[in-house]
Amino acid sequence: MFESATFEHRLDKAAFKALEPSLREDLLNAQFALIEAKRRSLIVLIHGPDGAGKGAVLNRLYSWLDVRKVQTLTFEMPCAEEDRPPMWKYWRELPPFGQIGVMLGSWYHAPLCKRALGTMGRADFMASLDEMERFESMLHAEGVSLLKIWLYLDGDEARRRLKALSKGDYQRPIVREWAEVEGAAARKRLHLASEEAARATSTEIAPWHVVPAADTEYCDAMVGSLLLEKLRAMAAEPEPAPLPLPPNPTHVPSLLPPFSILSTLDMSRSLQEAEYDRELAQAQSRITRLTNAPAFARSGLVIAFEGSDAAGKSSTIMRLRRALDPRRFRVHPIAAPTDEERARPYLWRFWRHIPAHGRTAIFDRSWYGRVLVERVEGLCGPDDWGRAYGEINDFEAQLTRAGYVVVKFWLAISQEEQARRFEEREKIAYKRFKLTPEDWRNREKWPLYEAAVTEMVDRTSTREAPWTLVEAEDKHFARVKVLKTVADRLEAALGG
User: How many C-beta atoms surround the C-beta of residue 130 within 10 A?
Assistant: First the structure.
């Protein structure tokens, strides 16, 4: 990947001054087209050895673009221990559609750093690169384009520049991306790992561009040209086609009877009042003890509630709340996305709410909306909900690797019990807000939702983040089962 960059590439100052005005005008026109369309955003990743001029390139781009729609995305010490999953900080900073983010220190930094320091083997390194490729593919499909730039500079020249920058009366700020990588052997491993990463993750939608950085004018002109080419390519992309009608989600030949995993549940399960009070109190006590244990400070708890309308999610969450320190948990009710959320990839609004270690996040409805309501109601196309299963599995795998306990519940009731609860809500004044005409209309699509739930469980119930199906016809039984499951999962993760 770096061979041609080792040869001399130069552009004299007069030639640079001659081409700069037209390049700046074209860049602004292309940027304004991006801003006006608001269909996609762009992230420019700038990597390279310390001393290659990453900060100078960034400043040049700011002098050429409308800075009101450009963000600098910088991340320090990515090799250090963090109190959230490693990808959280990148998700949090994704720019909205119509804007450009220039990133110094991206998701490539930590694995490259660990590989250079010898703390990551090749198998794990390649696995992390595969995960990055899936992440970038998802970003592209969700409206985020990538321009990946590697500023190439010979190691000796890079160190000479760093030394020169640190001298003199005025010391300029230095963008140190690889401060942890010291010594000739580590720097060589970093160079080899960088070449391997560039080859492995240079894809059709997000190729790497190696820019010779020895000559400042040539480097700036090439980066500007690459950015212009990318912006024009984004503007030339066709408008998204109208959403197709939702297909039959069963994927089962019509000659065979449909199967619903929910039909396997025993809805007659129940608890008497005294037994319910005793078991609920015991489960709440276990959860309180476990979430206040020293080991939980290095972990975290993420709970997702899904289920039929009126299945008792809110009342179950209320009993769960009573077991948790109110200073260290939040409940996130999920509704239709806001304009801010629509301007970013789908999972952004869930990543932003991932708690720090030692804390709990409870989602009343969750990231599974894409493969449930959006799928059944035709709010997204088959391509979107079809790839969502893999994206969700990656999301939850990243949480569990970072020490989080991910617990997922589907609260199930029968159609008859749902109708009874709807009618009850209509009669009780303080419960009427829970019932809308949309709830009644959704009952017409009960078979479609059952089929979607079955496929969802099949494709996203993993060893690290399994689904728990809850028989919720009896609210006492459902609440106790949910709280016991949370306590059991915490005990298993924290070692009792």
Answer: 12
Beta bridge partners, 302, equal: 361, 406
The token pair that represents 72 in the structure block:
């600098």
Give long-range contacts, CB 8 A cutoff, 24+ apart: 271-276: 271/474, 271/476, 271/477, 271/480, 272/476, 273/476, 276/476, 276/477, 276/479, 276/480
CA angle 89, 95, 97 (to 5 degrees): 145
DSSP helix, strand, coil percent of the chain (3-state; round to 5)? 55, 15, 35
pTM (predicted TM-score)? 0.91
Residues 244 and 381: beta-carbon distance below 8 Å: yes
Tokens of 52: 């290659």
Task: List the alpha helices (DSSP H) in 292-381.
Answer: 313-321, 339-342, 348-351, 373-376
Residues 6 or more apart whose CB falls under 8 angstroms from that of 357 comprise 83, 84, 297, 298, 299, 300, 403
Q: Find the Cα–Cα–Cα–Cα dihedral 111, 114, 119, 121, rounded to 10°.
A: 40
CA–CA separation, 102 vs 90, rounded Å?
12
Cα-trace Rg, the chain: 27
Work out the burial of residue 36: count CB atoms within 10 Å of its CB; fewer than 13 is exposed, 13-18 middle, 19 or more buried: exposed
First-to-last C-alpha distance (Å) of the chain: 50
Encode 357-395: b = buried (16+ Cβ within 10 Å), e = exposed. bbbbbbbbbbbbbbbbbbbbeebbbeebbebbbebbbbb
Cα dihedral sign, 262-263-268-269: negative
Q: How far apart are CA 161 and CA 281, in angstroms?
A: 66
pLDDT in tens, the chain (496 residues): 788 888 889 999 999 999 999 999 999 999 999 999 999 999 999 999 888 899 999 999 999 999 999 999 988 655 455 789 999 999 999 999 999 999 998 999 999 999 999 999 999 999 999 999 999 999 999 999 999 999 999 888 888 887 777 676 555 666 777 878 888 898 899 999 999 999 999 999 999 999 999 999 999 999 999 999 999 999 998 877 665 555 555 455 567 788 999 999 999 999 999 999 999 999 999 999 999 999 999 999 999 999 999 999 999 999 999 999 999 999 999 999 999 999 999 999 999 999 999 999 999 999 999 999 999 999 999 999 999 999 999 999 999 999 999 999 999 999 999 999 988 888 777 676 767 777 777 788 999 999 999 999 999 999 999 999 999 999 999 999 999 999 999 999 998 6
d(CA 422, CA 309): 9
Q: How far apart are CA 258 and CA 251, in angstroms?
A: 9
What is residue 474's three-state secondary structure? Answer: coil
Which pairing describes strands 41-47 and 144-152: parallel, antiparallel, or unpaired? parallel
Place of tokens 């995960």: 131
